[in-house]
Design brief:
globular; 136 residues; 5-stranded mixed sheet; 5 strands; single chain; 6 helices; alpha+beta
């Protein structure tokens, strides 16, 4: 198993969970500007979306998207109790949270990592609906 990651990216959650379950895996750092791995692999061939995380399960299977990877790891390590049982409302709530984080919270922080973003947008990230209304 190999986790493709980039420092400061959302691949950190997958990295933490793999360590939490004591999974045996390799790390491969990706330069997101060039889409080259530290060993010279063309990351666009591994994940055509060009985003991390990507988790190579074997020679033919690569799983992408943080929420999917986290659920896969949790499902393959039930003893770690990282996710509620499939079919339970708590599992659906977990999916709600993972998808909200991926679709809303991450985009608010994009300007912090963009080389082309203005100083103003880097200093004042876009507010999410929850931040505006004070709800969680």
């Amino acid at each position: 198993m190999k986790l493709y990651y980039s420092p400061g990216a959302c691949s950190l959650a997958s990295h933490i969970v793999l360590r939490e379950v004591s999974e045996d895996f390799e790390l491969e750092r990706i330069d997101l500007n060039t889409l080259k791995s530290e060993s010279g692999e063309d990351f666009a061939q591994i994940n055509p979306k060009g985003y991390v995380p990507a988790l190579r399960l074997d020679e033919e299977q690569v799983l992408t998207e943080g929420a999917a990877i986290l659920q896969f790891i949790a499902d393959h390590h039930p003893q770690a109790k990282l996710a509620p049982t499939c079919g339970h409302i708590r599992r659906a709530r977990m999916n709600e949270h993972l998808n909200y984080i991926a679709s809303e919270l991450h985009k608010a922080f994009g300007p912090l990592f963009s080389e082309t973003a203005s100083e103003e947008s880097q200093e004042s990230p876009q507010k999410t609906r929850c931040q505006e209304t004070g709800t969680v």
